Amino acid sequence: MLINFAGSIHKKLFSLVLIMMFIMPCETIYAQSELELLNGTETEEVDATDAENTEVEVKAEKKKGPDLVTINNRFLYSVVIDITMVLLILIFVYYPNYKKLDTVFTFIVFNIVILLLTFVLNKVKISMGAAFGLFAVFSMLRYRTEGIDMKDMTYLFVFIAVGLISGIQLETTVLLVICGIIFLFLFVLDSNIFLRREFYQIVDFEKIEMVKPELRDDLINELKNRTGLNIHRISIYRLDYLRDVARIKVYYYVDKKDR
Predict the structure, then answer these.
(1) Is 140 helix (H, G, I), strand (E, B) or coil?
(2) Residue closest to 120 by CA, chosen among 159, 75, 86, 64
(3) What is the mean pLDDT of residues 167-174?
(4) Fewer Cβ in 10 A, N or C end of the chain?
(5) pLDDT at position 72, please?
């Protein structure tokens, strides 16, 4: 009887151990499930918070709207420096040497337009490549009705460059230094201070038989007597034997008293 009682107790203990072994993994799985649910809830809350922040930023950007072009003191200083630079070049360098009023309008308009375009493109955050593209197009411009002299094209390039530099909103001191260097080089190189300025004209000469190397001195003297210019050298531009006309480019100096 004792043996039967011991056997029954042993079976009950064995059954209890099996039940415990089955229940413990279930509790572990349930605990892990609860942790995953908690983590998932926290992740969803974080994602919701990020989404709300993103929506707030998008709304703020929409409220902000497009970039606005504002005029500040630096822009006004740049305009004053630019106009002063243009007037100095025209009054002290260009006009005293060439006496041309028809090109002054072109120089001033090109300069102001380039300055304003560069300023606007820089403010609205458009690539500066567009500004340099306009700069290149304007600098290579040719009028179909009348050819532009090389010196006039050089001055046109200078005025476009000054407008571009003034429009990119440099520091006032830097802009003054750059403009001063440009003006100094123009004043020194295009005046009679260090280099004697040379002019040229193209004339048609009917005595084509004088266009010979051994008669070059006689040809220069003949051209001096006819034109009254202080010609110091010539170059043959074109020979037309059908009409017996030679087109000659004559180079001469002009004194200040003769201007």
Answers:
(1) coil
(2) 75
(3) 90
(4) N
(5) 83
Task: Report the alpha-carbon distance of residue 169 to residue 233 in Å, rounded.
Answer: 47
Q: Do 187 and 158 meet the contact criterion of CB atoms below 8 Å apart?
A: no
H helix runs in the chain, sequence order: 2-64, 73-89, 95-98, 102-123, 128-139, 150-167, 172-189, 216-227
Angle between helices 73-89 and 172-189 (to 10 degrees): 10
Which segment, 78-87, 98-107, 160-169, 242-251, is predicted with the most confidence on average?
78-87
pLDDT in tens, 78-117: 999 999 999 999 999 998 888 888 889 989 998 999 899 8
Treating both helix axes as pointing N-terminal to C-terminal, what angle do 150-167 and 102-123 enclose, rounded to 10 degrees? 30
When the pLDDT of each residue in the chain is averaged and rounded to a whole number, the result is: 74
CA-CA distance, 33 to 26, in Å (whole number)? 10
In 3D space, the residue among 253, 257, 215 whose CA is nearest the CA of residue 236 turns out to be: 215
Confidence of residue 55 (pLDDT cuts 50, 70, 90): low
How distant, in Å, are the alpha carbons of 25, 225, 238 from that of 243? 118, 23, 12
Residue 156 near residue 106, CB atoms below 8 Å: yes
The dihedrals phi and psi of 37, each to the nearest 5 degrees, come to: -65, -40
The Cα–Cα gap between 169 and 171 comes to 7
